[in-house]
Amino acid sequence: MGMSDWKELLRLEDVDVDGAISRFANKEERYIKYLRLFLQDNNYALMNKYIAEGDVNKAFERCHAFKGVVGNLGFKSMYTVIYDVCELLRAGKIEGVEALVDEIRDNYDSIIEIICNNLL
Q1: What's CA 90's distance to the chain center, in Å?
Q2: Calpha distance 37→49 (Å, rounded)
Q3: Phi, psi (5° rounding) for residue 15?
Q4: pTM, full prediction
Q5: Collapsing DSSP states into helix, strand and coil, what is residue 15?
Q6: Reduced to 3 states, what is the DSSP secondary structure of residue 1?
């Protein structure tokens, strides 16, 4: 695996790498910096915590923040699901949200693993 293979690995996880890099003014290093920062982003963990606790408002706040980060980084599959979660929470509904979030767990874990194994 070469240094640029991280892009291909992310693409396999439905990440729009090229679109994201273009959003970062075509600066690949800047995109990599934000992928590394994603490892420290606690919105996903907090969203899950608040969903489990049944706190719709706090879950929505974290979900909304997470949606922005995920959208910016080009995580397409994750964004689609998180968008739906956000809309449910916005409407005050928590039923079915946990199952939706479960759909992205593997994708989330894989992306974290790719960043850890290739970009640190």
Answers
A1: 19
A2: 21
A3: -100, 130
A4: 0.93
A5: strand
A6: coil
As beta bridge partners, residue 15 has 75
Measured over the CA atoms of residue 74, residue 76, residue 82 and residue 84, the dihedral's sign is: positive
Axis crossing angle, helix 76-90 with helix 97-118, rounded to the nearest 10: 150
The residue count for the chain: 120
Residue 4 main-chain phi, psi, to 5 deg: -85, -5
Contact 21, 44 (CB under 8 A): no
**Chain centroid to CA 107:** 9
Rounded to 5 degrees, φ, ψ at 61 are: -55, -50
Per-residue pLDDT of the chain (120 residues; tens, 9 = 90+): 555 699 999 999 999 999 999 999 999 999 999 999 999 999 999 999 999 999 999 999 999 999 999 999 999 999 999 999 999 999 999 999 999 999 999 999 999 999 999 999
The answer to whether residues 55 and 90 touch, using CB atoms and an 8 Å cutoff, is: no
